[in-house]
Design a protein that fits this description.
single chain, about 140 residues, alpha/beta, Leucine-rich repeat, LRR (right-handed beta-alpha superhelix), 5-stranded parallel sheet, 5 helices, F-box domain-containing protein
Length: about 140
């Protein structure tokens, strides 16, 4: 869609298009990584990230995100985790992955996420020292 604007508008258009990114499955995650490899200047445009899918499997975008994308989204401040049905407890590595990659976020939204224990939920919150806003629905 960026090709539909003139060259002078490309950067402003990309800032709008990549402000909020939704990744629904591992294929979208890997495609997004390829895009960032080809155009690393897009990474700083991402401020909000929505990770959808099955959070209880190792190939979930949320579980794979830190290893696939790493620290390329330096301006990321908002993360939305949305579990698809059936809702099962999150993957055991998910809490520790927050500390490694997105510890600087200020806003976290959880929708239909099941934690195996309150300690896992507390670990995620502890790994986010800059967190200012927490939105939990059906957690």
């Amino acid at each position: 869609s960026c090709a539909l604007v003139c060259r002078a508008w490309r950067s402003p258009a990309q800032r709008v298009l990549f402000h909020y990114v939704t990744l629904r499955d591992k294929d979208m995650l890997y495609s997004f990584r390829e895009l960032l490899d080809a155009s690393p200047e897009l990474g700083p445009y991402v401020h909000a990230l929505e990770l959808r899918g099955y959070l209880h499997v190792p190939y979930s975008p949320a579980v794979l995100f830190p290893t696939v994308i790493g620290g390329r989204l330096v301006n990321l401040v908002e993360v939305h985790l949305i579990e698809n049905l059936p809702t099962l407890p999150i993957h055991r590595f998910l809490p520790s992955l927050f500390a490694s990659c997105i510890s600087h976020i200020r806003s976290l939204s959880l929708y239909a996420v099941i934690f195996p224990s309150f300690a896992d939920f507390a670990r995620i919150l502890h790994a986010l020292p800059d967190l200012r806003e927490l939105d939990c629905q059906s957690v």
